[in-house]
Amino acid sequence: MSSNYLLLCIDCNEGLDLGKTFKIRLSTDDRESYGFDAIGGLGINRELGDKAVYVEETIEFLQFFLMKHRLHEIRVLPDTVKKYETQNSSGIPDPYPDYEKYGEYMKAPIVKPDPDKEADILDKALIEKLKNL
Ligand SMILES: [Zn+2]
Which of 16, 36, 45, 119 is most solvent-facing, going by the fewest CB within 10 Å? Predict the structure, then answer.
C-alpha cells in the first residue's frame, strides 16, 4: 500500500496533500528520481491527462500555503505519521486541498512579505541553527 505525503505546518497544524511518490525523469541529466504526483513533474501532464487541471490548482494552493506559512516550521512527512496521534491532541490535520472548502480557505489574507523585518523576528533557536549551517 502506498502512502501519501503531506506538507505540514507544525505551528498551525495545517497540511497540504502532496500525493503519492512517483518516478520522474530529471531534465538536467535525464536521471530517474522521485516526485509527488499532486504537484506534477515531468511527464505527469502527458501521462495523466485531465489530472493536469488538478496539478494547476494544487500548485496555486502550494503557493498560497507557502506564503501563509512562511517563517513557520514546515515538514514533508508520510501520512503514516498519523500513528503518533494521541487522544489528547487535535491530531495530524486532514490535508488540503479539500475542494469543498478550497475557496473559503483561499480567502485568508496574505500581506506583502517584508524580508528584512521577517529576518528580524525569527526565534533564537532558529537563528542559532542558521549560524551553524
Ligand atoms: Zn503555519
Answer: 119
> 76 CA to middle of ligand 1, Å?
13
pTM over 0.90: no
| Ligand 1 centroid to residue 9 C-alpha, Å | 5
Ligand 1 midpoint to CA 12 (Å): 4
Q: What digits encode the pLDDT tens for the residues 86-109? A: 888 778 877 765 666 677 778 888
Q: Closest Cα to residue 111, out of 56, 48, 67?
A: 67
Structural domain range at position 127: 5-131
Total tally of structural domains belonging to the chain: 1
